[in-house]
């Protein structure tokens, strides 16, 4: 059975209990994490590091939204280039770039 956990009202990784929620979801069978940077954070924000460490240790992939977003959100936070530093700091982290960068596709092609 496929399952997903989400809360669009509180879907930011800077919540105090983000790691706790991720661990509980993983214990219940979640197979990865999706992060949506246009919600107001950058993938390079230190607050997200604990989630990367957890996912690296458990072998869980992290899917990043790297495509278009609604104009009222922080669309530039979805640029694939923000993931370069994450990949360098967490070389074991399995990173998936959702939408292949869309209008930033050239930076994805160079990184591959």
Question: What does this protein structure show overall?
Answer:
This protein has 112 residues and is α/β, with parallel strands linked by helices. The chain has one domain (18-111). The protein is 30% helix and 10% strand. It is built from four helices and three strands. It has helices at 18-27, 49-58, 83-89, 105-111; strands spanning 33-35, 62-65, 95-98. The protein has a three-stranded parallel beta sheet with strand order 1-2-3, with no helix packed on it. Helix 2 (49-58) links the parallel strand 1 (33-35) and strand 2. It starts with 17 loop residues before the first helix and ends with a helix.
- How far apart lie the N and C ends? 33 Å
How many domains is the backbone divided into? 1
Low-confidence stretches: none
Counting DSSP E segments of at least 2 residues, the number of strands comes to: 3
Q: What structural class do helix, strand and pairing data support?
A: alpha/beta
Instruction: Classify the oligomer.
Output: single chain
Count of helical regions: 4
The strand order across the widest sheet is 1-2-3
Average pLDDT works out at 82
The coarse overall form would be globular
The Cα radius of gyration reads: 14 Å
Q: Percent range for helical residues?
A: 25-40%
Strand composition percent? 5-15%
Largest sheet: 3 strands, parallel
GO molecular function: hydrolase activity
Domain Amidohydrolase-related: 18-107
Protein name: Amidohydrolase-related domain-containing protein
Pfam families: Amidohydro_2 (PF04909)
């Amino acid at each position: 059975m496929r399952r997903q956990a989400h809360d669009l009202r509180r879907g930011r990784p800077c919540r105090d209990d983000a790691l706790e929620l991720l661990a509980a979801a993983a214990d219940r069978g979640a197979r990865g994490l999706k992060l949506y940077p246009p919600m107001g954070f950058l993938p390079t924000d230190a607050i997200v590091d604990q989630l990367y460490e957890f996912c690296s240790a458990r072998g869980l992939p992290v899917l990043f939204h790297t495509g278009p977003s609604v104009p009222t959100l922080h669309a530039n936070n979805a640029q694939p280039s923000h993931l370069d530093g994450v990949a360098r700091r967490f070389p074991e982290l399995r990173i998936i770039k959702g939408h292949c960068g869309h209008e930033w596709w050239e930076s994805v092609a160079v990184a591959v």
